[in-house]
Specification:
Layout (H helix, E strand, L loop, with lengths): L1 E3 L7 E7 L13 E8 L2 E3 L8 E10 L18 E3 L12 H4 L1 E3 L7 E3 L3
Parallel strand pairs: 1-8
Antiparallel strand pairs: 1-4, 2-3, 2-5, 3-4, 5-6, 5-7
């Protein structure tokens, strides 16, 4: 997944691949996580060895190499964050179905952007 819209090249982008609505987008409950370097204000998170199924990705810009999102005013994270399908929620994260996509194997190129 290519993540765009980063405000700087500082830090990394942390991406979490979820395969369960019950775990999405809870930190530490992802099926697989990756850390992607930033180049030209974008990053590409590559997940390998993924079986066919339904998945959703949550990601954030760890400008200072944070390992988790930091809640700010009204619970909105102070870091840039986003979800596959550019899904968004009203008061909090979107549900799994809004961010979900079907993976049937092979290479799948997705793109999403950050919200600050």
């Amino acid at each position: 997944m290519t993540v765009t819209g980063l405000r700087s090249n500082d830090g990394v982008v942390r991406c979490a691949l979820h395969n369960s609505p019950a775990a999405f987008p809870k930190a530490g409950q992802e099926w697989r996580g990756v850390i992607a370097p930033i180049r030209d204000r974008q990053a590409t998170c590559v997940f390998s060895g993924v079986p066919a199924g339904n998945y959703a990705v949550a990601f954030f810009h760890a400008e200072h190499n944070e390992t988790q999102l930091t809640p700010g005013l009204f619970g909105k994270p102070i870091q840039g964050y986003g979800f596959s399908n550019n899904a968004s929620g009203s008061f909090g994260p979107p549900d799994f179905n809004a961010a979900a996509f079907r993976y049937d194997g092979g290479n799948l190129a997705l793109q999403a952007s950050l919200t600050y």
